[in-house]
Design a protein that fits this description.
mainly alpha; ABC transporter involved in vitamin B12 uptake, BtuC; two-stranded antiparallel sheet; 13 helices; Branched-chain amino acid ABC transporter permease; membrane; transmembrane
Length: 314
């Protein structure tokens, strides 16, 4: 396998890490389980593609903010309605809003219907005629994506260490108690919902630029399910669990699709992948980030106590 393959794979991992981090803000930090997060991913991906010139490089300076804001606006419209529900009803409402966006692009000419649309030229960062950043090569795009991941991680880390983050944690633990002490929990949840949509949109922008192609499947419930599983697989108790879950899921997919390892059976990779996923969830209820703690506990149980050791000597 060439260096270009590994570079592209790492870029994909970083994009999905940003996507998973955005959902982690809702699931792990606020306790809002959404099955419609792909809506923000897809809306932003379509926005950057539709707004880019057909045969020239667009300008990242305004394309990225406008595409991200489009996802946040959709969250601002749907959020107040979705957040009036709780539990499984919230899950179903977010799924419904995502499917609405899906059918807008699937059944109309706006986004090319089922065929999707192409982004012919990767955008570049320009101020006037001066090109500050050209991401046409895989390496430059790798650096740009890494910068976006670091920014996302840093912003969410600072956010969760702030008073706002403490309020979100309190809402996750006991929302009724937070309301009793005077917090407007609806406002906090709506803000978290919009911020999560923005970072989900950033991941969508990067995905569209990477592939140069978008289609309605980016907004499907399967896409929402994949990123939700990344968060669960990594572990919801820490932000970096989302990144570990994204990397773990993508590497597992690549592993089971490898004909070099599994030969002709690689065609049935969904079977082996699914069985592995079930095993991981069953054996690691706290996710991949809890694996070291689980192993240390098992080692501690295997060690004989001092009283048992002394009895054996005598």
């Amino acid at each position: 396998m060439t260096t270009a393959y590994y570079t592209t794979l790492i870029i994909k991992v970083m994009i999905y890490s940003i996507f998973a981090l955005s959902l982690q803000l809702l699931v792990g930090c606020t306790g809002l389980i959404s099955l419609g997060h792909a809506a923000f991913f897809g809306v932003s991906a379509y926005a950057v593609t539709l707004l880019s010139p057909e045969f020239a490089a667009g300008n990242l300076l305004w394309l990225v903010p406008v595409a991200v804001i489009s996802a946040m606006v959709y969250a601002l419209i749907t959020g107040p309605l979705a957040l009036k529900t709780k539990g499984v009803y919230f899950i179903m409402v977010t799924l419904a809003f995502a499917q609405m966006a899906y059918y807008v692009f699937h059944d109309t000419k706006l986004g090319g219907g089922t065929d999707g649309i192409y982004l012919n030229t990767r955008p570049e960062l320009r101020i006037g005629d001066a090109v500050l950043l050209d991401i046409s090569s895989n390496y430059s795009f790798y650096v740009f994506t890494l910068g976006c991941l670091i920014f996302t991680w840093g912003f969410l880390t600072i956010l969760m260490r702030s008073r706002f983050g403490a309020a979100l944690t309190g809402i996750h633990v006991n929302e009724q108690r937070m309301r009793a002490v005077g917090y407007s929990t609806f406002g906090y949840k709506l803000t978290a919902y919009i911020v999560a949509a923005g970072f989900g949109g950033l991941a969508g922008v990067l995905y569209a630029i990477k592939d140069g192609y978008v289609n309605p499947e980016l907004l499907s419930w399967e896409q929402s399910g994949i990123v939700l599983f990344m968060v669960i697989l990594g572990g919801t108790s820490r932000l970096w669990g989302a990144m570990i879950g994204a990397a773990g899921l993508i590497f597992l997919q690549e592993l089971f699709q490898s004909e070099a390892i599994f030969g002709a059976f690689a065609v049935h990779w969904h079977l082996t992948f699914g069985l592995t996923v079930i095993a991981l969830v069953a054996l690691m209820p706290t996710g991949l980030i809890g694996l070291p703690k689980q192993l240390s506990k098992r080692r501690g149980k295997k060690k004989p106590s001092p009283t048992v050791r002394s009895a054996t000597v005598h």
